[in-house]
Design goal:
- The protein is of the alpha/beta class.
- The protein has two domains: about 1-205 and about 330-405, 3-Layer(aba) Sandwich (Rossmann fold); about 240-315, formyl-coa transferase, domain 3 (2-Layer Sandwich).
- It contains 19 helices and 14 strands.
- It has helices spanning about 20-30, 60, 75-90, 100-105, 110-115, 140-145, 150, 165-190, 200-210, 230, 250-260, 265-270, 270-275, 275-280, 285-295, 300-310, 325-330, 370-380, 385-390; strands spanning about 1-5, 10-15, 35-40, 65-70, 90-95, 120-125, 195, 240, 245, 315, 335-340, 345-350, 360, 395.
- The strands form four sheets. Strands 7-6-5-2-3-4-14 form a seven-stranded mixed beta sheet, with helices on both faces. It has a three-stranded antiparallel beta sheet with strand order 8-9-10, covered by helices on one side.
- Helix 2 (about 60) links the parallel strand 3 (about 35-40) and strand 4.
- Helix 1 crosses helix 8 and helix 6 (about 140-145) crosses helix 9 (about 200-210).
- It is elongated.
- The relative contact order is 0.14.
Length: about 400
């Protein structure tokens, strides 16, 4: 369901793949009118398999709901002019262009600000404009490598690995959404738009260093980076008699309850176990105790015990297990819907919760250019001019030229 929290906000979305589309999908979920401007070939993420129809891959469907698709050839004068018409009364413009291409298209911040001083301008780029990497291309894998994430996720033998999800794009997409919302609030106060930017490299380093700056917080002589608790090799899901579980006694009381129940009261009474500071320095030893202890019972048995002890726990799920999870079923996170072009599909609804806010049905991820004619009409472009744009390829619509006169 679409919330009405951003009703009346117009977003022009010139992004592709995941970072920007994920951010603008969240804005669409909150009620903004998101106009996705695509080149004639479409967002490259449309081609990611699996798919039922060409250009409508499952991954594309997952981050492009609640948007309208407009196809403009921005290499043409008419296409660029149409984009400027869309930006003239937009509230938000978000793109993932590097500085040089943005300048060539005439959509640098300085140029667009002259057109619409109240516009919130968001650049989702690989690297900040003041550094030597500013014109480099970047994707999720590149940032996982550069930010230190791949080395944090290394194998026991020290071989760096990518995290098997598009983590950087999605985290920075959330940051971009947050910045856009803050800029809209600022506009309410000042009456002016502004520039906001989310460079992926800097954003991921700041994200990781929340805990991993660690002793370097106090200078290089104080020690190295890395939060010891999460880096210890003993921190892992623990094998039970019939599966794996995550268990995390965290407070002194939780450790005391767990160790006492499992017949290790003497360990629970030791000074270093009872003192949180001392315990944190030797946490790997306690995690080894967990590993040895968990193997003696089944998952069902441990769930009963840990619930009674009020200690955080969870079974290790596969992605397929999630469809049978009783909580996710109760809240209806997965939904079967009838997509107008893709037929019956499974969708993951927005996880946001609101009360006392009007809601409408989700808008399905659109076929390429499905809303081109509709949006250009709304921008005040005449039917004759739209037909000319369609005839020359400056704009593309799957509906054909005839609809411009309807």
């Amino acid at each position: 369901m679409v919330s009405s929290l951003l009703s009346g906000i117009k977003v022009v979305d010139l992004t592709s793949v995941v970072l920007g589309p994920y951010a603008t999908q969240m804005l669409g979920d909150l009620g903004a009118d998101v106009i996705k401007v695509e080149p004639p070939a479409g967002d490259v993420f449309r081609a990611a398999e699996p798919s039922r129809n060409v250009g409508m891959g499952a991954q594309f469907l997952g981050c492009n709901r609640n948007k309208r698709s407009v196809v403009l050839d921005l290499k043409s004068d008419a296409g660029r002019e149409a984009l400027m018409r869309l930006l003239a009364d937009a509230d938000v413009f978000i793109h993932n262009l590097r500085p040089a291409p943005a300048d060539r298209l005439g959509v640098s911040y300085e140029a667009v600000r002259q057109l619409n001083p109240q516009l919130v301008y968001c650049a989702t780029v690989g690297f900040g404009k003041d550094g030597p990497y500013s014109d480099r291309p970047a994707y999720d894998d590149i940032i996982q490598a550069m930010s230190g994430l791949a080395s944090l996720n290394a194998t026991p033998e020290g071989e760096p690995r990518f995290v098997p999800t598009i983590l950087c794009d999605k985290i920075v997409g959330i940051m971009a959404t947050q910045l856009v919302l803050a800029a809209l609030v600022n506009r309410q106060t000042t009456g002016k738009g502004c520039f906001v930017g989310t460079p992926m490299f800097e954003s991921l380093v700041s994200f990781l260093m929340v805990e991993h700056l660690s002793a370097r917080t106090f200078g290089p002589d104080a020690g190295g980076t890395g939060y010891e608790r999460v880096l210890t090799p003993e921190r892992r899901p623990y094998r039970t008699l019939d599966g794996y579980m995550a268990v995390l006694p965290y407070t002194t009381d939780q450790w005391t309850r767990f160790l006492t129940f499992t017949g290790q009261s003497a360990l629970a009474r030791l000074d270093w176990v009872r003192d949180p500071v001392k315990r944190s320095k030797r946490i790997g030893e306690l995690y080894r105790v967990l590993s040895e202890t968990m193997s003696g019972r089944s998952c069902d048995e441990w769930e009963t015990v840990l619930a009674e002890l009020d200690i955080p726990f969870a079974r290790v799920n596969s992605l397929d297990d999630l469809f049978a999870d009783e909580h996710l079923r109760a809240v209806g996170l997965f939904q079967e819907v009838n997509h107008p072009t893709e037929g019956r599909v499974t969708s993951v609804r927005s996880p946001f919760e609101t009360k006392d806010v009007a809601q409408t049905e989700d808008r399905f991820a659109p076929v390429l250019g499905f809303h081109t004619i509709e949006v250009l009409r709304e921008a005040g472009i005449s039917p004759d001019r739209i037909e000319e744009m369609l005839a020359t390829g400056a704009a593309v619509s799957p509906h054909g030229q005839h609809e411009t006169s309807n």
